[in-house]
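ugh ok so i messed up the first submission bc i forgot one of the chains. this is the corrected input, ALL of the components this time, i swear. 632 residues overall. if the numbers dont match what u have on ur side tell me asap before i send this to the collaborators (the ones from the other lab, u know who)
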Amino acid sequence: MYVELKHINKHFGNFKASDDVTVGIEKGKLIGLLGPSGSGKTTILRMIAGLEHPDSGEIIIDGKVINDVPASKRGIGFVFQSYALFRYMTVFDNIAFGLKIAKKPANEIKERVHELLELVGLSGLEKRYPSELSGGQRQRVAFARALAPNPQLLLLDEPFAAIDAKVRQELRSWLKGMIQKLGVTSIFVTHDQDEAIEVADEIIITNRGRIEQVGTPYEIYSNPKTAFTASFFGQPSIFKDYTKFRNFESIENIDNAVVRPEFVKVTKKTEVQKYSKSAEEGIVEEVNFRGFGIELRIRVNGVVLTARRSFDEPKVEVGEKVDVFLYQLFVTEGNEARLLKNQSLREPVVVI
Amino acid sequence: MSTVTQSSLHRDTKGSKIVRYSLIGLSLLFVFLMLILPLITVITEAFKQGFAVYSKAVADDYTIKAILLTLEASFFAVAINTVFGLCAAWSLTKFKFKGKKILATLIDLPVTVSPIIAGLIFLLTFGRQSPIFSLLQDADIKIVFAVPGIVLATIFVTFPFISRELIPVLESQGTDEEEAAALMGAKGFTIFRRITFPHIKWAFLYGVVLCAARAMGEFGAVSVISGHLRGKTNTLPLHVEILFNEFQYVPAFAVASILVMLAILILVARSVIEHKGRKK
Ligand SMILES: Nc1ncnc2c1ncn2[C@@H]1O[C@H](COP(=O)(O)OP(=O)(O)OP(=O)(O)O)[C@@H](O)[C@H]1O
Ligand SMILES: [Mg+2]
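and heres the new structure output, hopefully the right one now
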């Protein structure tokens, strides 16, 4: 493990911002720190950088405990959420700042800055001031500035938050490509699940100062270990009593059932239903157009589920009676989550 | 739609022509009566008996001493308050600590306390009645009715000016840029010089100018603690008062005109600084 946090606790006054945080990060990986607002993501990043100090616990980088190493000596690149570009310096001076502090020779600085400007695609803008750049350009300058002294670890706090949706999409893939090319171990904070899934090699889920789960986007998405993770992704429908749905193993003391839209199969009465025996009848309450298709809200067994249908399937009307089949659901007990599959999926399908 | 609401808003808030002209006229009249007329009076009274009498009054030994003392007190007040103002503004905006609110409130005390009271406080603290008076006397330090007292009083009266200008600017800047610089290995003073100072430069100069202006004109606090010893503890404003009380009107106005000119000089400096600051 290149970066390790061991039993980190951090209070702000009485508020516990980090609660026994223990996690390890491999060298060269691009890690997404994902969680709701106020869950302690920035706090973790700032402690790694040395801008905050944990009350207890160890921070280890490259095998060395660095709790007592000041921020200026850790050699970490940091991209602030607000970019924090030096507004009274040109783009060139911004990027050159760290190199000048390190007393590198002037020609070397010049060469490195131009190399970075080229890398981030901002050649020719070196004489501009930050106020004369667009949001996306500022973000690139902040990125170049953090990379200039060749850090072994790059931390990015919500690098895309201040950028509008379209440019954000571009910058995401740009940043991912760039970090892969450079091979620098990176941690980026986000509260956008799509962003984390799309960009990160591995995701760390935070909630209320604790780490909920660590894993690849696929693992976390398809196999949530905690109640929080299970209900964090997608647009889950959450309800108490799942036993009204037939063909699910019944377990004692379950708190909640979590159903994601992709777990729900909706068929019109006129369509062929593969699992007609175990489907339930529901009533369509809402039909909403979405970019990817149609989103439905369906009342079935007293609960409202969100489901999707694609454009090429026959239209469904509000008030229509439809068949609803659940492939699977997550059940939660305390903060544990487990997956239950519809048992009729295991029965041999009788083809007539 | 937005143009409609904007123009009606314009009419509602800015009022009709009559309202506009009468408000502007009233303000101008007020400024003329309260500021311009007295200034003109000071200058004309000063030159009433010709330039020779004027220059004699200005070149008078006591006047020169008073000018020098005023400049000296102002210099110390500005120098010390610069250091204090920077420290206070810095700690109030960049650190969290116990008693922060109290410090912020106390800084403004000199603005709310009457200068006479400020003078009295120093008189009571360092004067004959005070328990530390004998200590000071043993060490041969004179504060009350001496130059150090005047400097102290001037510092007291002017000490919020610089920090008050700096605090809003430092607050709006936040600490991100400084943290970014620190992460790249910059030390405290480099961070201040390269990151923070360019940001607060104009507000800082503005504070210095205000502080200097107030220091030169200070009367109340200084009056209590100075003892009015001509040629020793007389600042310009005190000198004007003495001359006036002795019915030496022309010299009194002549000396006052020096203060007026200093004030105008400072006003010019102020608007230059404001102008430059805004351009940034
Ligand atoms: N300097 C501070 N003083 C007091 N409380 C703080 C401080 N910094 C953070 N907190 C609190 O700690 C909690 C976690 O904050 P943190 O900034 O780490 O959240 P986050 O996960 O980054 O949230 P967001 O997505 O909104 O940026 C929040 O409730 C916040 O109010
Ligand atoms: Mg944050």
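quick check: The mean pLDDT of chain A is 90. that seems consistent at least. Helices of chain A lie at 41-49, 91-101, 106-119, 135-147, 165-182, 193-199, 217-222, 227-232.
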